[in-house]
Amino acid sequence: MSILVEKLDGAKMVKYLALKNWRDLGTVYAGKVKQMQSPDGKFAVLLPLVSTFEDNEEVMLRALRVIATFEETTEISLYNRLTNPSYDFLRWRIAGDSTAGGNIPFNSMGANIDFIKDLLGTACLDILSPAVYHAKVYTKEVNEQLAQYSFGQTEIGSYIMNVLCPLGHYQYQLFDPDTENLPLARRINLNILNNIETIQRSVEDNSQELNDNVESQAISVNFLSSLSEMYEENKDSQITLKADWNRDVPLIGNPNPVSNVLLKPNCLERVMMTVETYTPKEEQNVKATYFGKITNIGTEAEIENRTVFDIKVATIGENLRTVYVIATLSYSDFFIMADKAFQEGANVKITGSRTTTARSIKLKEASIEVAE
After folding, report:
1. Backbone angles phi, psi at 314, to 5 degrees
2. Is the dihedral of CA 116, 319, 325, 342 positive or negative?
3. How far apart are CA 215 and CA 15, in angstroms?
4. Distance between CA 350 and CA 334 in Å, rounded?
5. Could you tell me which of 285, 244, 207 has the C-alpha nearest to residue 87?
6. What angle do CA 19, 189, 114 make, to 5 degrees?
7. Are strands 347-356 and 361-370 parallel, antiparallel or unpaired?
8. Contact assessment for residue 104 and residue 111, using Cβ atoms and an 8 Å cutoff
9. Sequence-separated (6 or more) residues with CB below 8 Å from residue 336
């Protein structure tokens, strides 16, 4: 038990009890021990602020037991709360034919994890550096924040991804903070839920609210793009996002925040129109080169009609994410080479006139060669 007691911090416990409205009765033993009394006056504890007392372990365990009794919880539960970081949970529930047994197709799972990460990342950057459009999302600060997140267990009957959003030992620091001082993860969660509700309400009401939020830099184009990808991937399923707020971190200024939203893929078209409107336009028809592997080849069914063909090439974009480039090539000049590279899984180099939209990269009048 001594190893466990070492993780208990008397000063943090004092702050924790202050948050719970325990009365500070002052210190004893030359300021080395704090006396605290429960709000109802029925319980009192001594909390050593130093660990040099011979009976330190006994006193700390007694305090733990008394506080747990007052809170009507177990000593282990209270100990975990005092020694482990706090979390909010974002519960992404995906319900459809493929998830009825509590599982989810591997490709869809990977895609949804990427989309959730994108929404967290873009919401984080919208808070740290508001802008209509972010040329780069996964900055050092965003990556450092996301590195603290993890997934919890899923539940049978649908597929639920529980995202643990770390708040740190924040409950010990809360006295009279304002909204700007909330933990970043809490602000990100509020941002995501509020944004989705605002976006979908604006689409359904056919209002300017969505455009106004983009122009004011409250919602970035990047967030809209991430949300649209999740809409499209799960258009045949129902996705519900629910926040399970850690109540030890008060919901300052908004005791009843948006905590549950149903994603509505029918909003996709309007959202993508907004993305197209506000995404900075890249120079079109410029020569560009990409390296990657061919994932698909398409051409006319009738051989005599085959003058050109399209290939889809997977390449690496930001944050090591897969980006797809569609290239149109001359059938007579390049089909045999491209088909051989496709069959053998060879790396290729494609060059052509690039045109881009918010959703795709295309190369016209392209050429291809096998990359060394």
Report:
1. -90, 125
2. negative
3. 42
4. 11
5. 244
6. 140
7. antiparallel
8. no
9. none
Beta-bridge partners for 93: 160, 240
Q: Are strands 322-330 and 361-370 parallel, antiparallel or unpaired?
A: parallel
User: Which residue in 270, 275, 265 sits closest to 356, CA to CA?
Assistant: 275
CB-based contact 251:243 (threshold 8 Å) = no
Residue 13 has pLDDT above 60, yes or no: yes
* Residue written as token pair 């984080």: 124
Question: pLDDT per residue over 349-361, tens digit each?
Answer: 999 998 876 667 8
Greatest Cα pair distance in the chain: 97
Q: What's the predicted TM-score (pTM) here?
A: 0.71
CA dist 54 and 60 (Å) reads: 12
What is the H or E stretch that residue 335 is in? helix 331-344
**Dihedral pair phi/psi, residue 45, rounded to 5°:** -135, 155
The pair of three-digit structure tokens given for residue 234, joined into one six-digit string:
């799960």
Q: Tokens 């926040």 sit at which residue? A: 243
Question: How many residues are listed for the chain in this entry?
Answer: 372
Sequence-ordered list of residues with C-beta below 8 angstroms from that of 178, at least 6 positions apart, any chain:
252, 253
The tokens of 198 are what? Answer: 């605002």
The pLDDT tens digits for 17-48 are 987 889 999 999 888 999 999 999 999 999 99
Cα-only R_g, the chain: 28
Question: Sign of torsion, CA 252 227 107 341?
Answer: negative
Which single residue is written with the structure tokens 């996002």? 241
The one-character DSSP state at 292 is: E
Paired sense of beta strands 44-48 and 322-330, if any: unpaired
Cβ neighbours for 307, distance < 8 A, ≥ 6 positions apart: 330, 331, 332
Distance CA 7, CA 183 (A): 23
- Token pair 């030890």 in the structure block, residue: 248
Question: 257: which DSSP letter?
Answer: -
Q: What is the side-by-side strand order in the sheet with 238-244?
A: 150-151, 159-168, 86-95, 238-244, 260-262
- Six-digit token pair at 2? 């001594």
Task: Residue 60: name the closest of 73, 72, 75, 38 by CA.
Answer: 75
